[in-house]
Amino acid sequence: MPEDAAVDPGEAAAGRQVEDVLAALDRDLVALHEVKRRIREIAALLVIDRCRRRLGLEARPPTLHMCFTGNPGTGKTTVARRMGEILHALGYLRKGHLVTASRDDLVGQYVGHTAPKTREVIRRAMGGVLFIDEAYHIYRPGNERDYGQETVEILLETMEDHRADLVVILAGYKAQMDRLFSEVPGLSSRIAHHLDFPDFGLEELLEIARRMAAEQRYRLSPAAEEAFLRYLEERIRQPRFANGRSVRNALDRARMRHAARLYEALRDGRRLTKRELVTIEPEDILASRVFTGGAYAGVSAGGER
Amino acid sequence: MDGIRITQGTFSYLPDLTDEEIAAQIAYGLERRWAVSIEYTDDPHPRNVYWELWGMPMFDLEDPVAALAEVRRCRQALPDHYIRVSLYDPSLTRMTTALQFIVHRPAREPGFRLDRQEGHDRTIRYTLHAYAADRPHGDRYPEAERGRGAP
Lengths: 305, 151
Known about the structure:
The structure holds 2 protein chains of 2 kinds. Chain A is of the alpha/beta class. In chain A, about 50% of the residues lie in helices and about 10% in strands. Chain A has 13 helices and 7 strands. Chain A has a 5-stranded parallel beta sheet with strand order 2-3-4-1-5, sandwiched between helices. Chain A has a two-stranded parallel ribbon with strand order 6-7. In chain A, helix 7 links the parallel strand 3 (about 130) and strand 4. In chain A, helix 2 runs antiparallel to helix 3 (about 35-55). Chain B is α+β, with helices and mostly antiparallel strands. In chain B, about 20% of the residues lie in helices and about 25% in strands. Chain B contains 2 helices and 6 strands, in the order H-E-E-H-E-E-E-E. In chain B, strands 2-1-3-4 form a 4-stranded antiparallel beta sheet. In chain B, strands 5-6 form a two-stranded antiparallel ribbon. In chain B, a hairpin with a 5-residue loop joins strand 5 (about 110-120) and strand 6 (about 125-130). The longest helix of chain B is centred in the middle third of the chain and has 14 residues, at about 65-75. Chain B starts with 18 loop residues before the first helix and ends in a 21-residue tail after the last strand. At the A-B interface, helix 6 of A face helix 2 of B.
């Protein structure tokens, strides 16, 4: 083809759909600017690749395996799910669904159990995204009787041979992922994108709360927002703070107190307005144990309460 | 000498399916949420319904390439066997194999001999005997060059 052969922008903008997905990503996810920028870059690369292919310029499909590092609740799973949709819209993945797996799903209990188990998970993920949460648990160095090694080998082989069929996303804490990469040579080099998910700031957490509430048709009154900010300030300093997830839990508990409060009113024979049913008030939040000495002081195990 | 190309299952009178065609057939099944299994045998008798399973049946697949990769692995491991793909429809009231086709066969199929057994009163009973079945199980298509698609 001649040098000045051109690609019709409309054609390249199967990108229209891509723009929609990217815009939705920008709109739906709070903060995470760095992550969004990287996704944009990946999308751009794939769109341009497609244009190049139209003009007969061969390009090896890029490696898109990724590693997401960050603290709990920073949006890794959410972004992974979005990633599947985006890559599907871009024509890189055929289905774009997300299959989540952890050590239990991949590593077997006895000899000969691991390979079929790992392969089965990989088969289900084909055409989409295989998301391995806390990936560093798979490999336990120093224990030769651990079957994690086998899983890692199959994963490496799959990441190489089925590069165009599925995208593997490993997720976990930064430090532990780094340890995994240093222990398994060949893993890091097969992963093209390392995305770091920073902790959210207070304002961002509040914004997340607003959206979560709105999703469930609740609303925080201005005073309640203030109270929630104070709650977050306290909560952030206490142990096992999990960003978005903690916000969701706090909101769920606020909902419960809100319901208890309204139920009392109902029993007293009062009628409830729609506004009351929708609005979360400061007292629903201020009753939290976080303010009274801390629900998490001195806890060591067990779930968040 | 050419033997008899066995014709069992769907598409068996067509030329062997290419990998793309196999994937397309599997995709058709997956769209309908059918389960995929891969079976193999080296007993070509038409009444042999008990083929062996290659791994477990595959449920919840999204992408036919996953099953195709298994077909390839199976071919590589058992180049001298017949391999077929079965698609099982689990929906209520049907619950049966919905589509089944051969995806691999030994390079040379020696075919069948017709045996006649004389009974009383000059009656004749006929039976098919696969030449391959004269050899022990697992060693039935030995001198065949490696089959189609195998590395």
